[in-house]
């Protein structure tokens, strides 16, 4: 039991890194299954290009949109912002751009993994390139026979051995592009992480403490919310069956829920660790905490908005 608890603690401690690793592995595994089981190049001049591009790019687009759907920050930003009479806005100016950029960067992990693994495998690229007039002009030069047989190359049906040998060139191009994409992504990720860390308004150890605080806050919030909701439901059901009036329960107002659900902005004058922390420490009970002078979005503090009550956004 102690070993299980130790493993659970380690998972909770590194759940973000493990989640990204799991997403990467599942995406890579899914691409391998698609390329070996589902994908079958039609070897047709009319279909090769579109068929190959669909398998290369459409799953990547679907994974990108899924990343947006699973991001808690997306729903924190959008929920209620289009309701009639709502004061919240869907993000504007620099703050909106920063939030969208951060969410997009996180959502791009799975699609970039798909494209990189697909390019290293080469099947999708070979099929698409063999049906492209652009590649036909450069691979076959002025040979009309080569251009006619090029779409048959992915299936190994080209009549000329020289034309069939072009498959090796297409595979090499695909793999080179795959490694270039991997190198570019790692470089951009390293530079972005280094810059955000360098511009961090808080120290390394305070950042660690901050993440621990958020884990505890969300865990306690979920427990307290479950208990409060259960008691309220029990009282309402009891009064329904007994045909009596319920006793008064104190619950946060809609305005209170909206304020603690808004996106977090850092203020060096008041270093609150979450919107809930900022809410309970407000000086004026009627004052809005959504925005005040000195507030700003800080990329490295994007993790503050990531967890919900269940740490994963529920649709």
TrEMBL record:
<dbReference type="InterPro" id="IPR029569">
    <property type="entry name" value="CALHM"/>
</dbReference>
<feature type="transmembrane region" description="Helical">
    <location>
        <begin position="176"/>
        <end position="195"/>
    </location>
</feature>
<keyword id="KW-0812">Transmembrane</keyword>
<keyword id="KW-0407">Ion channel</keyword>
<keyword id="KW-0813">Transport</keyword>
<comment type="similarity">
    <text>Belongs to the CALHM family.</text>
</comment>
<protein>
    <submittedName>
        <fullName>Calcium homeostasis modulator protein 6</fullName>
    </submittedName>
</protein>
<keyword id="KW-0406">Ion transport</keyword>
<dbReference type="Pfam" id="PF14798">
    <property type="entry name" value="Ca_hom_mod"/>
</dbReference>
<keyword id="KW-0472">Membrane</keyword>
<feature type="transmembrane region" description="Helical">
    <location>
        <begin position="50"/>
        <end position="70"/>
    </location>
</feature>
<keyword id="KW-1133">Transmembrane helix</keyword>
């Amino acid at each position: 039991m102690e070993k299980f608890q130790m493993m659970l603690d380690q998972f909770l401690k590194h759940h973000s890194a493990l989640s990204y690793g799991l997403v990467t592995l599942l995406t890579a595994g899914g691409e391998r299954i698609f390329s070996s089981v589902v994908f079958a190049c039609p070897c047709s001049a009319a279909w090769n290009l579109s068929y190959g591009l669909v398998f290369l790019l459409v799953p990547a687009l679907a994974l990108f949109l899924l990343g947006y759907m699973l991001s808690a920050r997306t729903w924190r930003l959008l929920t209620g912002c289009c309701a009639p009479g709502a004061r919240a806005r869907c993000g504007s100016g620099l703050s909106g751009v920063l939030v969208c950029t951060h969410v997009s960067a996180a959502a791009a992990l799975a699609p970039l993994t798909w494209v990189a693994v697909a390019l290293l495998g080469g099947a999708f690229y070979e099929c698409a390139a063999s049906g492209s007039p652009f590649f036909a002009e450069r691979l076959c030069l002025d040979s009309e026979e080569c251009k006619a047989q090029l779409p048959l190359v992915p299936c190994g049906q080209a009549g000329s051995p020289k034309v069939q040998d072009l498959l090796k060139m297409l595979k090499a191009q695909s793999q080179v592009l795959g490694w270039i994409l991997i190198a570019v992504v790692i470089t951009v990720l390293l530079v972005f992480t280094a810059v955000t860390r360098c511009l961090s308004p808080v120290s390394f150890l305070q950042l660690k403490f901050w993440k621990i605080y958020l884990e505890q806050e969300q865990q306690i919030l979920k427990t307290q919310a479950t208990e409060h909701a259960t008691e309220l439901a029990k009282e309402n059901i009891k009064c329904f069956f007994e045909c009596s009036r319920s006793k008064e329960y104190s619950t946060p107002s809609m305005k209170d829920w909206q304020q603690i659900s808004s996106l977090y902005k850092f203020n060096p004058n008041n270093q609150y660790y979450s919107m809930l922390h900022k809410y309970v420490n407000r000086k004026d009970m009627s004052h809005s905490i959504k925005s005040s002078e000195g507030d700003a979005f800080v990329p490295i503090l994007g993790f503050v908005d990531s967890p919900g009550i269940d740490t994963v956004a529920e649709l």
